[in-house]
Amino acid sequence: MTNMTTFLTAVKGQIKTYTLTKATHIAVGTGTTAETAADTTLETEGVREAIIDSSEGTSDVVVSLFLGSTEGNGSDYTEVGAFDAAADGNMMMRRTFPAIEKTSAIDIWVDIEEQIDVTQ
Amino acid sequence: MTIMTTIPQYYVRKDSTNYVLVSFIFEREGNESIDQTPFEVSKANGANLDIGDDVSIGYMSGITFVPVFSGDIVEKSINETSSYVLESYGGRLNRTDHFSVIHNGVSPESIAEDIIDNEVTTLNYASTATSGITLTEFVVKDETPAEAMGRLTKLLNWQIRTDNDKNFYFEPYGETVNSNVITIGTNAHLVTNWNYVPGTIINSLTFKGGSAVFNTSQTFTATASQTSFVVDNKINGTVLVTDNAVELLGGVDGSTASYDYTIDGDNKTITFEVGATAGHTIIVNYNYDVPIKINAKNDASIAANGTFSRKMTEENINTMSEARRRAGQILDTYSELSRTSSVLVNYDSSYTAGETVTIVDSFNDIDRQLVINKMTMSYPEGTKIIEVGTPKINQYLWQKGLDDRLRILEQKQDNADRVQQYRSFKESINIKQRDGRIKIRSVDKANSTLLNSTTNGWFGTNTITASGKQQVMDEDDRTTTIYGISNPNDIMYERFNFTTFIDTLASTATVNTTLEKVTF
Question: Which of A110, B175, B397, B478 is the most buried (most CB within 10 A)?
């Protein structure tokens, strides 16, 4: 997983502006180009769904995407990203992965875990 | 090297009497087996120690007995010397009556605590580890506590252990971290080579739990004489079929009774005896199983090591979230190439089986945390050897050693055609909190010239005097306001926890030094 530069800049900006919005959606796509911190969108976005589950641990946050048997079928998904809007918006992090063929017999669940390490 | 240690005289202590030990070999292996320690005393002392005795093995420190391990004597043989086998208190889980109980909607650790509290009352459940897993139903039917606990340890791949105070622990391998670092060549040395064991990697895991039953209806618009209606899921049990809101009578293929349709659940098919009328609405209401079946992969490990797949079945897991959590734990633990070795450590060191310990072996480029899978102490040789590596994989869970018949049964249970692909991606944000001022200078008055006398300081000829506080050289009544600082050596980070450099004249900022916030 790679944090986008815009996202990290927003994290730093919190000290002054408090404008960072939370991740609300996760999208999967079929792009295969390796992620870089400068990416602003998925390479080829396929399906974007609202975050179905989230949890917060001592030093980590997990947000989850679920694609059921009727969602997003017919594609081999190879990239995932977290966004702060249902459309467009800011991409916070992106990752490519070996293809998962999505059919009605396959559900997909993706966890994105952001570990926050604070050192004195 | 500081391996050499003075070995004290060891004793077997029963009640408050010590009996001199001739020898023992103490092995501790987590839940691989109940710890059993063969020991030997003189023939004369044999009369004082019997099967069932609760004894400790240890040494005297002044007038205080220091128990190294304790347990119950379970075997005895006598001839020229008296030989015994001491079993750790965990053995009491075997030496208890069978019991039956049903637990609903509780965690495995809660079940374990209940077993110890109610069935093995001589032990005290002292573990605080939590799994985050809730079992819908866990049935114990005529089992010993050891058998029931064995199933729980297999379910979570946790370990059980007892200590000398009869405390019972049910916890993940390596839950306790021994902070004493093992440095090969300094406080330990290798007994065996580092063995890399690729067969223990798991980076592609198919995890199957139980099944959840759901009900649904599917609607078809019949074509002329259509007899076959295929639903989306495998049918579990009977169905309700209506033809334009008229309920049809279902039957079994081959039956002589009159019926309207038959069910082929595996092929998801309802077959009408007489073709439907074109345009009629056919509704099929049926139950179907949603298998708890997850495929989880660690792509980075697969790229680095190739694919090492395993299949795991645990019928007690019956929600997807629990299965994902379990699969994630397994991949986190076993996705890396395992390495194992045996290490000779100080005899009086504190390392014991089940602990996590950091091992540094600069010669072999190893600096990592590993789990102590086994600890062996030998007396009177005075050696202590620990086996370190990745936590052992539960043999039963990983289908090793299952015969073909059981494998076929597993496959039959796993005929579901739905699977959830699960991936977990991680990223981190590192935030470093810095002190606002890295360097602060103060003036030592004893070694300084001060010009803050109330009668003005003297520095050569007194020419111009400021308003009674300072002797200002070459300038009268100078005022100074600091607007900022230059920061050439990175000695200052603004955290807003002090206001020295806030320009209160030119800025409208409000600084909260307690919360370290600034607002405009």
Answer: A110
